[in-house]
Amino acid sequence: MTWIEFTETIRTVCTYYERKIPNDNALELWHERVKTIPRESLDWIKRKIFEENDTFPKNLPTVMWSLYNAWLTAHPEKRAFREEAQCPECEGGWLVLQKQVDGYRQPISFSAPCGKCRQIPSAHYMTLFQAIEQGYERIELKKYPEAGPRDIKKLAESVGMKMPDYARRVA
Ligand SMILES: [Zn+2]
């Protein structure tokens, strides 16, 4: 949100609770904390502040962040829309990975819902960092548009082996 959008929001909240608007120094510190909250969530956040607080919230930036997270939960499609194009770590919400394993000529493939953007609804996520820690490397599908990832479980079954469920384990 811009500075103007931020101060408008604070002005409204202060008016609602009949409270003095904080001085510019305080406002700047607050804005620093909440400026990455997107504008489109602000009306919803304001409404929730009014619904859930009988008095002016003690720590308004913290309240705004927790309401923003609630907004994301209430509007999962916004989460996908916002982050799909931006997530630098995955392919549309999926980590597409491979790992060199002893006894296999080809590296094994694996995918997991991306724990950075969490745009795929899932109970368990894996971040690229966790994947690399576990010895995987990323396959950037955009570089190989014709190549789909092989399914690690099918591959494992084809050699009579059961692979651990990493997505579950790292959650
Ligand atoms: Zn991602």
State the main characteristics:
171 residues, 3 strands, 45% helix, elongated, binds zinc ion
Structural class: mainly alpha
Number of domains: 2
Measured by DSSP, the beta-strand proportion falls in 5-15%
Structure ligands: zinc ion
The main sheet orders its strands as: 2-1-3
**Count the helices. How many?**
8
Please give the radius of gyration in angstroms.
22 Å
Q: What ranges have pLDDT less than 50 throughout 5 or more consecutive residues?
A: 145-152, 166-171
Listing every helix as H and every strand as E from the N terminus to the C terminus, the arrangement reads HHHHHEEHEHH
Global mean pLDDT: 81
Biggest pleated sheet: 3 strands, antiparallel
What general form does the structure show? elongated
Helices, strands, pairings?
Layout: H1 3-16, H2 24-34, H3 42-52, H4 60-74, H5 76-84, E1 94-99, E2 108-113, H6 128-133, E3 137-138, H7 152-158, H8 166-169
Antiparallel strand pairs: 1-2, 1-3
Helix pairs in contact: 1-3, 2-4, 3-4, 4-5
Bound molecules: zinc ion (ZN).
The site of zinc ion has 7 residues, from loops.
